[in-house]
Write a structure and sequence with these properties.
Structural class: alpha+beta
Number of helices: 7
Strand content: 5-15%
Radius of gyration: 19 Å
Shape: flat
CATH superfamily of the largest domain: Winged helix-like DNA-binding domain superfamily/Winged helix DNA-binding domain
Largest sheet: 3 strands, mixed
Number of domains: 2
Number of strands: 5
Low-confidence stretches: none
CATH architecture of the largest domain: Orthogonal Bundle
Mean pLDDT: 86
Length: 164
């Protein structure tokens, strides 16, 4: 299976940093320099990451932000609706929620890769089920867990357990 093309960002009014500042102001908090560094770093590229990967990326980039600030800020960014938390088999990953269309995921349990995809049939099914139950859906989370093509090819087909 070929990788799907990365999702194209939506056109949004304002930046993630501006939205986060507004969110913090409503809560009576400030956008401190470490928080600003985190928001800019996170929204400079679109990828899935966990807290430890973010800390390592920041260190590699020469930015000093404490681990505690990273964890607190990630929680705030989720509350603000700027990041989405993905609870995967063996870790919690984060991705942009602000500025990207609704989509679903496949998670490889071998290499931890996360593949994004969009499928209109899943959305139609969500709406039909919601309507059937008198429910007004605003979102959903759908994660297919398994093994990606690269990890499948890397497995030896001659292993006895795979043949059972």
């Amino acid at each position: 299976m070929a990788d799907s093309a990365p999702l194209e960002p939506l056109v949004e009014q304002g930046s993630a940093e501006e939205k986060f500042r507004e969110f913090l102001e409503i809560r009576g908090e400030k956008l401190t320099e470490p928080r600003r560094v985190l928001v800019r770093h996170i929204f400079d590229s679109h990828k899935h990451f966990d807290a430890d990967e973010l800390v390592a990326d920041l260190r590699t980039a020469g930015r000093r932000v404490s681990r505690a600030t990273v964890y607190r800020t990630l929680r705030l960014l989720v509350e603000a609706g700027l990041l989405r938390e993905l609870r995967l088999t063996n870790r919690t990953a984060y991705e942009h929620d602000f500025g990207y269309p609704s989509h679903d995921h496949m998670h490889c349990t071998e290499c931890n890769r996360v593949i994004e995809f969009r499928n209109d049939e899943i959305r139609r099914l969500r709406e039909a089920i919601s309507t059937e139950h008198g429910f007004r859906a605003s979102a959903h989370r759908f994660v297919i867990t398994g093994v990606c093509p690269a990890c499948s090819r890397a497995r030896s087909p001659r292993r006895r357990l795979d043949l059972i």
